Fold this sequence. Notes:
With 233 residues, chain A is an all-alpha fold. Chain A contains seven helices and no strands. Residues 218-231 of chain A have low confidence and may be disordered.
Amino acid sequence: MERAIDLEIQKLKERILLMGGYVEKAIEEATQALIDREPERFEKVHEYETIINRSHIEVDEACLRLLARQSPLAADLRLIVAVIKINTDLERMGDQAVNISHNGKRYLERPPLKPLIDLPRMSQEVRVMVRAALDAFVKRDSVMAADVLQRDDSVDALKHHIFQELIAYMGKDPTTIEQALNLILIARNLERLGDHATNIAEDVIFAVTGKDVRHGAHNPSRRVAKPSGKAKT
Amino acid sequence: MERAIDLEIQKLKERILLMGGYVEKAIEEATQALIDREPERFEKVHEYETIINRSHIEVDEACLRLLARQSPLAADLRLIVAVIKINTDLERMGDQAVNISHNGKRYLERPPLKPLIDLPRMSQEVRVMVRAALDAFVKRDSVMAADVLQRDDSVDALKHHIFQELIAYMGKDPTTIEQALNLILIARNLERLGDHATNIAEDVIFAVTGKDVRHGAHNPSRRVAKPSGKAKT
């Protein structure tokens, strides 16, 4: 028999998926505006962020209503708490896409640095992480979620490489300092987007298995070299 | 009559306060190690982060237990959901303190740039925000929380000023690029700490008043010039 709470949880999942879709679009549009040097397209990122913010408030309200009226237990309760957290991460991802727009606008005010280096690839990787984390959430698939944690390492490696190249650029030609700095900040924004996707994946694993994989509580070896998924620069 | 849930909520508040105290200490130690050029003191920041991470997991577990066993309603429910969010912000603040340590260590590997400019002041401001946000939480004081939102503007202004000065430094003397970049990233870390304190203050206002002040839902004028408290660089 279908329980009322199942229907509500299904609706919550659909909202989160939709919101995640807008996050992906916001990241893609911000990156593409930068690649194509079309600053007017950053406006679209703000529009997506407004939608994400509205959804953020609605999902929070829906979770509070569910907790108050249905008194969910065990797996349902874990899932709703995970949604509250995933919702927060998605909202902050919208902020980061807007941050890319701000830095991107400043970058486009000056002549281009020749390469965007690995930034487009980094953006692509991050979007794959977001999509995979939310797929894992909807399918309650903790193995798929664990794969997202691995992918974050390659995003971090890309960021490190971008930093090195841009610092070398600045040193060779000080007139490039401001442009290079804007790209460094964009690489940092993308890295943070990857961190948020990682947070979502960790919340999915907790919601599905009841196991807490944060802070090496589940698999200490993963976190030894890197005390926290977010602590890097 | 004292309800069982009141005692549990009191315990939760004490844990959050304790955790916030460690966050303050971590920020202070990271900044002071930088000012005094004593890199070995960054180790202490990692120790604080380990304590914060342990607390993060315990608070989450306590919240889930409370939600499952006590089926809290209305104000209690809003407060517990706020604790889940505040807990996440405090944990990420620990990460940011570690990020300051990483950037600080790299900074201290080279000769100093003459001034640390406004970084010590920015760190001080951020710690005041953390303390005020958590005081507001414990006292259920939404006016005090609203004051934190205002303070964030001065932190952002400090960051902007620091960025401008450091970019000028880099331009005048390209041998300072790496040191200046490390300080720029530290200013960015401090700005993010201010954003997290702002998030906490917003959650306090919601928990106390039931009003959502995020995304200009409560007072649109505050957010017009700045689409989101976190979207800046």
